[in-house]
Design brief:
Elements: H1 2-17, H2 22-38, E1 48-54, H3 68-75, E2 79-85, H4 91-100, H5 104-107, H6 118-124, H7 132-138, E3 142-147, E4 168-172, E5 184-187, E6 193-194, H8 200-217, E7 222-227, H9 281-284, H10 291-325, E8 331-337, H11 357-360, E9 364-367, E10 375-382, H12 386-394, E11 420-425, E12 429-431, E13 444-446, E14 451-458, E15 461-468, E16 473-477, E17 501-502, E18 505-506, H13 507-521, H14 527-530, H15 532-536, H16 545-548, H17 554-558
Helix pairs in contact: 1-2, 3-10, 8-10
């Protein structure tokens, strides 16, 4: 409307100028043309989507404070989703869940390499013909991708088969994916090309801008994904005279950024290298870090922040190019990461794979038509909600096999929502960092790191509940224990008259609800992942944990089978995962007598 008013005013001025001289008319009409070119009328075609996904970027360790361009373009011009979570704190399973809208227990891609994960597993499961870019192409979109897609996508298997779903692609390939100064990319169906000696951020920036130009020149709406590896650890490809084991060293920033933040340290929160151990299983057995390890962690943290400067500049370049093209007002831009990261919290060396906040809570910004600027959305959102969200933006009907639902992009959003996140993991934990620098072994693998958990944020509660494959349990009330230092789950003692309370009920009564909820979520599919309480109590109006805590349901929840494992396995082996189905109120008497 402002544009039309301005043009109308200039036309009136042109009519008046006609009484004067032709040069005045020409100047006025030139002004009209300039406005029309700089502020084009809204396009009638479906919106474009630019998707930027970083690798291992933390939210809880404050990395965003060091990315001014991202804050300017994404936070100030869009919405920040403050409670956004991944469902598996490991890159390949998390990315497959993101691109399919399904939990890892439904994709069965649970690791970074075969037999339980990686690109070969993705192909074996049939997803190369059935994931987001394929669906978007079917809906009339041009699709482009550059950067890291999945782990175990290699110089040896990139063509068996080629990745489907993209008009143009230029993928990073293993074993060079994480080598900042020796990357290999593979374009469309061409042979791989080595970029040894060039920094991978410079390479991907050039490729990303090229694909964006290609997309802008097309007549159809576009979906462009840019997936830089920063701030992931640097991993050099193996050599004959190199170390015997994989070494995941600090990321390598661009030369122009290596001097930055010389005095910055990992935030010294209460759970940073605590005096008392916390957590369960192998985490509780970690020794307190000595000063050499703490100093190394601080150096590692600075390298991550420096490496992110390349991403910050990349985002600035992409937004600037969209602005110059006149397509920014018809483009949604999504910025996120595949999982979070910890350094020193709970005495942990650098890494991810845990269920703590540092690993599962990640940045998410969205800007675009109708999305409020400078707004903070506190609703619970997850990576399996992103594909349904993109479907909604593109006007594509929701798929029944989505385990998530569209993210609320406006404050008045009235669609279905959830207060829970299903977090699951199988197999190994990994210590990252080149600890040989301080007299320790290189990267360390912990074989037993399988767990199922639920993260709940509702009215008056903020909880995390998990069951490990050795049947240890965790329960944290983050409203009073934001750093997850005090496990509330009772260990070895029988709860009696002086039993602690949680949310107005005894601890055992609250745990019975949380465990039943997790029992549904650890095997859920489709709508049962979004509305799990309807599985348990289809005959009652139960939508939240608060509803389920009503005392009239105590016997029902006490009778539920409990989440447990029969053994620890490296992948999703259903026979190892204990009970799969809860009792429901449809089971008849005696349930009908007291619900």
């Amino acid at each position: 409307m402002k544009l039309l008013t301005a043009i109308a005013g200039l036309i009136v001025a042109a009519e008046g100028a006609a009484i004067g001289n032709a040069m005045d008319v020409q100047n006025v009409l030139q002004s009209v043309l300039s406005i029309a070119q700089s502020r084009p009328l809204k396009s009638s075609k479906p919106p474009n989507v630019l998707f930027v996904i970083t690798d291992d970027q933390d939210l809880q360790l404050d990395s965003l404070s060091y990315t001014p361009h991202i804050l300017k373009h994404m936070r100030d011009k869009g919405t920040f989703f403050s409670n956004h979570f991944v469902t598996t704190a490991l890159c390949c399973p998390s990315r497959v869940s993101l691109w399919t809208g399904r939990q890892a227990h439904n994709t069965n891609v649970t690791d970074v390499s075969p037999p339980y994960g990686g690109y070969p597993k993705f192909v074996d499961r049939g997803f190369n013909d059935n994931f987001l870019p394929v669906w978007l192409q079917e809906a009339g979109y041009d699709t482009y991708y550059t950067g890291k897609l999945f782990n175990a996508h290699t110089v040896g298997n990139y063509d068996s088969p080629y990745v489907n779903g993209f008009n143009g692609s230029d993928f990073l390939l293993d074993p060079f994916t994480y080598s900042y100064l020796n990357s290999t990319y593979q374009r469309n169906q061409d042979p791989p090309v080595s970029y040894e000696g060039q920094h991978t951020m410079d390479v991907i920036t050039e490729k990303a801008l090229g694909f964006l130009d290609d997309a802008l020149e097309g007549d159809r709406p576009f979906f462009v994904t840019v997936a830089p590896i920063a701030p992931h650890s640097n991993v050099n490809p193996p050599t004959l005279d190199g170390p015997n084991q994989l070494v995941m060293g600090a990321p390598i920033p661009l030369p122009r950024h290596r001097h930055l933040f010389p005095d910055v340290k990992v935030p010294r929160t209460d759970h940073f290298n605590p005096d008392e151990p916390s957590g369960v299983s192998w985490i509780r057995d970690l020794p307190q870090q000595n000063q050499s390890i703490v100093d190394y962690g601080d150096s590692y943290y600075r390298s991550r922040l420096q490496a992110l400067q390349g991403v910050d500049e990349l985002v600035d370049s992409l937004v600037t190019r969209l602005e110059e093209s006149g397509q920014l007002d018809n483009t949604y831009i999504i910025y996120t990461s595949d999982n979070g990261f910890h350094i020193g919290q709970h005495r942990l060396p650098p890494g991810k794979t845990c269920g703590f906040e540092e690993d599962i809570r990640v940045p998410l910004f969205i800007r675009g038509p109708g999305v409020p600027e400078g707004y903070v959305q506190n609703s619970v959102t997850t990576h399996i909600d992103l594909a349904p969200t993109i479907f909604q933006l593109a006007g594509i009907p929701h798929r029944d096999d989505f385990d998530g639902t569209a993210i609320p992009l406006t404050p008045d959003y009235a669609g279905p929502r959830h207060e829970h996140v299903t977090v699951e993991f199988w197999g190994k934990a990994v210590f990252e960092g080149d600890f040989s620098q301080i007299g320790m072994d290189g990267s360390i693998f912990i074989p037993n790191n399988t767990y199922k958990s639920v993260r709940l944020l509702g009215e008056g509660y903020n909880l995390y509940y998990s069951v490990w494959c050795n049947n240890e349990h965790e329960l944290y009330d983050l409203s009073t224990d934001p750093y997850q230092l005090h496990n509330l789950y009772p260990s070895g003692s029988v709860l009696g008259e002086n039993e602690p309370h949680l949310l107005g009920r005894t601890l055992s009564q609250a745990i019975s609800r949380l465990d039943a909820l997790l029992l549904v979520l650890k095997s859920c599919q489709g709508f049962t992942c979004i509305e799990p309480w309807k599985v348990l109590q289809p005959q009652n109006s139960i939508y939240t944990l608060r509803d389920a805590l009503d005392e009239k349901y105590d016997l029902f929840y006490q009778a539920q089978p409990q989440v447990s494992f029969d053994w620890c396995d490296a992948g999703y082996v259903i026979e190892a995962e204990g009970p799969q189905a809860p009792l429901t109120t449809r089971h008849g008497l005696p349930w009908d007598a007291w619900v």
